[in-house]
Amino acid sequence: MKCLTCVTYDVRTVAQRLSVTITNRNTLKEKLIEIRFDCDWCDRPLVGEGDMHEWLIKRSVLRRDKRIFDERNCSILHHACHMAHGQTRAMTEKLAPIFVQRYGKENMLDFIDGLDMKSPQQFVHVIEAVVQ
């Protein structure tokens, strides 16, 4: 398996590997920092700290819905990378292939489908546009 950060990822989510449901944003952030070593934007080491960014489905889209706190939707970034690029189209375009490679296209689409959104098309399109 070719990986962008030279780390082989288990296709199961953190929650599946730990056999728990993670609904707390801070708990998920801590677990992701433990297993991801590099910033998803610049690919440099995180050195134990980072910001968690909901890269595909934003909190403003599904207010108060903790289902978006899923590792398939959460990138880990240096604070500076997050502040400079977090809400940009470039961030979405850069992260889509990384997350499709990490979790698989079907798993990403299952995540979107599981949110039961009224209009998921724009998010589905982002994932479908990734060439594997």
Question: What does the model show?
Answer:
It is a single chain. The protein has 132 residues and is mainly alpha-helical. The chain has one domain (14-128). Helix content is 42%, strand content 6%. The chain contains six helices and two strands, in the order H-H-E-E-H-H-H-H. It has helices at residues 14-18, 25-35, 79-85, 89-103, 105-114, 121-128; strands at residues 51-54, 74-77. Strands 1-2 form a two-stranded antiparallel ribbon. Helix 4 crosses helix 5 (105-114) and helix 5 (105-114) packs antiparallel against helix 6. It is globular and about 40 Å long.
Question: Gyration radius, to the nearest Å?
Answer: 14 Å
- Helix and strand string, N-terminal first? HHEEHHHH
Q: State the helix count.
A: 6
Shape: globular
Task: Give the strand order, joined by hyphens, for the main sheet.
Answer: 1-2
List keywords for this structure.
single chain, 132 residues, mainly alpha, two-stranded antiparallel sheet, 6 helices, 2 strands, 6% strand, globular, disordered N terminus
Please give a quick description of this structure.
The chain has 132 residues and is mainly alpha-helical.
Which helices and strands occur, and which strands form pairs?
Blueprint: H1 14-18, H2 25-35, E1 51-54, E2 74-77, H3 79-85, H4 89-103, H5 105-114, H6 121-128
Helix pairs in contact: 4-5, 5-6
